Structures are given as C-alpha cells and as structure tokens.
Amino acid sequence: MKAYQVVMLLGLGLMVDAAVGNQYANHPASFADSVSVVQASAQSADRKILYYRDPSGAPYWSAEPKKDANGRDYIPVYDDDEPTFGPGGELQKPARQACGPRKILYYRNPMGLPDTSPVPKKDPMGMDYIPVYECDEQDDGKTVKVSLDKIQRSGVRTETVEPRIVVRPVRAVGTVMHDESLMTVVTMRSDGYIEELFVSKTGAHVHKGDPLFRVYSPDIVSAQVNLRNGGAGGGEQRLRNFGVPESHIREVLAGKNPMSLIWPAPATGDVITKRVINGQRARAGEELYRIVDHTHVWVIADVAESDLPFVKIGTRATVTVRAYTAQPMEGEVTFIYPELKAETRTAQVRIEVPNPDGRLKVEMYADVVFQSGAGDEPCVALPASAVIDSGTRQVVLVAKGEGRFEPRPVKLGRRGDGYIEVVEGVVAGEDVVTSATFLIDAESNLKAALQAFTQPEAAK
Q1: Which of 68, 267, 344, 386 is the most buried (most CB within 10 A)?
Q2: Domain limits for position 301
Q3: pLDDT grade, residue 459 (50/70/90)?
C-alpha cells in the first residue's frame, strides 16, 4: 500500500473512531453490539483490513495489530464495514447484511465516478478499485453515492417530509377608516330654528340621549296644539312622524305645551361633522351632525393583484400602525372590493379591527400582514431550503440512506414560514436534504455528465 493511501485510511480511521467514541461512550451495550457485528463479518476470507481501532471506542487507531493498555486486541476494520450515519449525523451500526458466500460482481471507482471494471485495477492515482458484491444494493441509475466523510465535512442535514399547515404571509399597506356601519346622521323632519347649541364643536364625544341643541319648529308646535285640543291619536302620531322624542310627547300628554324642544343624540360616538350654528334655520332633511362610533374601525388595505388569490373572506390579519409599532392588533377580512385600481394594480381589502381604547385614529397608516392558509387543512410540505430551483425546474434530493441520494423533480404549491407545499414528487415520510444541497447536486451533475460522455464508448 502506498504512503498516501495509508495516510487517507488513517485519517478516515480517526474520523470514524472519533464519531464512534462520541456516540457509544455512554452506551456500552450499543458499542458491544457494533463490535459483535464487526467480528462476525470478519469471518469472510476475501475482505480487506483497512486499519485497527481501539476496542474501548476511544479515538485511537493503528495500521498494524496491537493491544491497548489493558491487553485487549485492537479491532480490525474491514473495507466493507464503513459506518453509516443517521439524518442527524449520529453514528449507526454497519448496515451490511449477511447473505452467505459473497460473489464479487464488479469493481467500482474509489472516487465515486461512474467507472467500473470486471477485474481488480487501480485508478490513475494508484488507488484500488472497490469490490461490489451481489448482496449489495445496486445502483438504479437514479441515485448518487457520496462518501460519508464528505457528507460529514460538508454538514449535510436531512428532514422528514410531513403534513403541516403552510401559512403564507401576505403583506400590504393600509389606512384606518371609519366603520361606515357605525355612522349616524342627525337631521330634522320638519323646518325649525336653532335656539341653542349644546354640542358646538366638531370632535366632541357624545352618548346616546345627550342634548345636542334646542329647536323651535312651527310644525311641531302645531301638532302639539292639535294633540291638546282633542286630536289624541292623530296629533300623537304626527309628532312621532316628525321624529319628536318620546320624552317630549309625554310632556305634551301631561298637559304641557313647550314652544321648543331639546333634540337628543341618537347614538354614542364622536361628532365628525357639524353643520349647524346657533340661530340657524334647519331645513327638513338637512344634515346637522354626523356621529361615528369608533370602538370598531376599518383598515382598508391595498393588496397587490398577484397576492389576491391568497386573501379570502375570514382571513386573519395583523395590523400594526406606525404610532404603536410594539402593539399589533388582530383583525379579520370582511370584504374584498370588486374593483381594481388601474394605477397601482391593487385591490382594496376591508379588515375590521376592534378599537375599544380609541387609540386608532382615522387616516393612520398601517402595515398589514394577512395570515393566508392559517385555517386550511394540512398539506405535504418540505423545507424551502431543500428545493434546488433552476428557474424552470425544481428538484429535491431524497436521502435513501448510507450516503445515497436521489435527485427528484417536484411540483410545488404554496409557500410560507420556511416551508413549501409539495403537489407532486415526494410523499410524507421521505427524507430530503436541507443543507449542503450544492454538494450532492454537483455529484449528481458530474455523474450524469460522465455517463453521457462514456455511453458512446460503451456502445462500440
């Protein structure tokens, strides 16, 4: 054996023994099982000893047979006893299965190249070709083999594909607006004259029943006189038709005949519009006040046209206004407007947000994040880092075990939270590579290129 081959084998031995020592230090039973497997497999006369390792699992090795400090023999490690590693990098028992007397099928390139030989040979660097036995799993042409030390050095990690809810965040900007369903307009149903204002400022907060103004109306006074003169049914109904408060009607029925009446607020809220002043003539149907309840508000978000398929009625949304960035609020989509803004190619989406403390002010800007898919059924999904995307083709690397990987094209769906829905290509329970995919992809491309290069020669 040449000097550089010895160095490579010893280096591999150090790496394997370090892994064995770490894995089995606290599990003597597992280590004993591994030892028994190795000793049993040594019965085959055609197997080649690579090196000898410490019987206790410590990271010590030797190129020749020797004993440890306690007089125990070092354990031989054969060329087909290469250890396997689990998805998390843990060392497992050798995966070789007993299959009786083994027949050599061919010899493969020691560097993993798609080059085989029916007889023993060496590569250009002088390294022996590795025998492949009939009980070993054969290469189906779809998988690529990567040496385990390269997998360990490159930090290859895998993750199991499983059903999960894929939540895709859709971001948009919005504006706080009045809740139109909580607006109330104050008008009179007859002409009158404002004698006194009790709410004289825009923005004032009023409660239902609070006095807004005192008004004199000839039509209302006429109906009162009719009621007092015996037209009980008609006069009372006429006052109700004029929108006169019930409290005023009871005063008239009690024998009083006030020449003016106090008009109460019909709802609780903030006065956002005031179109009346003291002494003004108020015409029937003319808007005098507009009152809005701000305990609930709307946030109108502009959603990009491409994101509209992911936003639906009932989708939960997180709203964060610039004034309270540390206090986001939760809301729900209640309406998607039917028209698209041609200038911005966005659609308006209405979100209802509670505002009990009144901190949300109309026309505030808001950052909106729609939690698309949060209420959907789980779907088969894999980590986004597992996808190799060329722009026209998406591929994932399926881990087959023992350093074998299969590049597999996939069809993808929704994306979110670092995961992607898999429509076709892999199924739940399969392991896919999530890190160092470039290494295995490069090996796969090299294998395909060499196969394409050597096929014409093989055909001759």
Answers
A1: 386
A2: 170-179+294-372
A3: very low
Question: pLDDT higher for 154 or 1?
Answer: 154
Amino acid sitting at position 371: Q
Where a domain ends, among 257, 289, 321?
A: 289
- The model carries a pTM of 0.56
| pLDDT tens digit sequence for 300-344 | 999 999 899 889 998 999 999 989 999 999 999 999 999 999 999
Sign (positive or negative) of CA dihedral 350, 353, 358, 360? negative
- Residues 263, 242 contacting (CB under 8 angstroms): no
Domain count, the chain: 5
Whether residues 367 and 384 fall in one domain: no
Tokens of 158: 């895998």
d(CA 440, CA 144): 8
With a CB cutoff of 8 Å and minimum separation 6, the contacts of 237 are none
Pairwise CA distance, residues 125 & 111, whole Å: 10
- Placement of tokens 């027949």 in the chain: 103
What are 53-101's pLDDT values in tens digits? 778 766 677 878 998 888 888 888 776 555 544 444 444 444 444 455 6
d(CA 93, CA 403): 14
Does residue 111 lie within any of the structural domains? yes
Rounded average pLDDT over 216-240: 82
Q: What CATH number does the domain containing 312 carry?
A: 2.40.30.170
Return the structure tokens found at 194. 């404002």
What does the alpha-carbon distance between residue 197 and residue 195 come to, in Å, rounded to a whole number? 7
